[in-house]
Amino acid sequence: MPQTSPIQPHGALLVGSVNYDDAETTMRTAAEMLGGLLRRIPDGEVGKRFHWIMFQPDVLGQTDGIERVGENPIPFPAGIDARPLRIAEGADAASLVLPPLGYASAALESYEIFRRLRDQGVIAEEVRFQVSLPTPLAVVASFFAGDDRAAIEPVYTAAILRELDEILAAIPHEDLAIQWDVASEMGIIERASGYGAVMDAWWPGDPFDGLVSRLASLIGAVPLDVEVGVHLCYGDAGEKHFIEPADAGNLVRYANAVIAGSGRELTWLHLPVPIERDDEAYFAPLAGLTPVDELYLGLVHREDGAEGAQRRIAAASGFAPEFGVATECGIGRAPAGSTADILRSHADVAASW
After folding, report:
1. pTM surpassing 0.90?
2. Across the chain, how many H-helices and E-strands are there?
3. Which of 180, 240, 243, 245 has the most Cβ atoms closer than 10 angstroms to its Cβ?
4. What is the pLDDT of residues 84-126, one digit of tens each?
5. Residue 260 buriedness (CB in 10 A; 0-12 / 13-18 / 19+)
6. Which of 324, 115, 168, 142 is nearest to 242 (CA)?
7. Which of 63, 68, 70, 27 is nearest to 45 (CA)?
8. Using one digit for the tens of pLDDT, what is the confidence trace for 298-344?
9. Which helix (H) or strand (E) holds 335?
10. What is the spatial distance between Cα 163 and Cα 145, in angstroms, rounded to a whole number?
11. Beta-carbon neighbour count of residue 72 at 10 Å?
């Protein structure tokens, strides 16, 4: 039976993007407002990374053998061209040489800011620098179609792992935390229609098994002395999911399978909570979740702040013995001027570690 009184959440997680213009503002503000709630701080995914993977077509489109689909650019904020991609006729996908994807260079630049702020005492010594990376599946599923998906997936996977290796080589492992951002996978599990198209798998066999093995492999690519987390997500285009989950059941099913299949332990797991779900039915599957060191529930929403978060905390309390708080996705696309209030809501409902 659910317990009768809400638990006190401990700790907070910044999922990734934060709606500030630069990494230093993000880190300073997070450290000042959330302090002892945070075990790791991201750079806010500023610049072209503000909308997750939407800048990747501009990067991949520079590759000999990869073409943009359509004659006219699809304009997107920050000067991004959102047109999808295809492998050029006659090109051998396995021979494509992708340029640097931009994640490692951004991480190395932001880490220097992180280290300077830590040296100045702005960021506590024990806090790690968090780098969020997309799963290769997300980029492949979002920007390629048909047979090109199977052809480009190993090429892009190798490229994102090169980015990871560059980060691992440059940033001291004791300072580093890697988060894998996982959204398209949930769309395939849910057989969602996505943002206008059905989200489906392109490999043989049970799609679920393929999704588990892919994410487990990415987790295993992170060395044991580096923290690793997973952010499960249902999308955030226009602050709207590609499908509203019936409950947390598929999140728990996928997380449990990935944890069982990974070669190392997860440091943290983040699960989203839709704003309208403050009912026990949504949270009931959490009773079957494999324990992780840190569980964060994305139950903080800008629209109803601490009051709404408290309702969702109360509903979750009977099914998760302990958890921290987060937003359901990054807040890089939140309306201008709303970021401080969102951060404050975390502090209003959670206690420090």
Report:
1. yes
2. 11, 11
3. 180
4. 999 999 999 999 999 999 999 999 999 999 999 999 999 999 9
5. exposed
6. 142
7. 27
8. 999 999 999 999 999 999 999 999 999 999 998 877 878 889 999 99
9. none
10. 24
11. 8
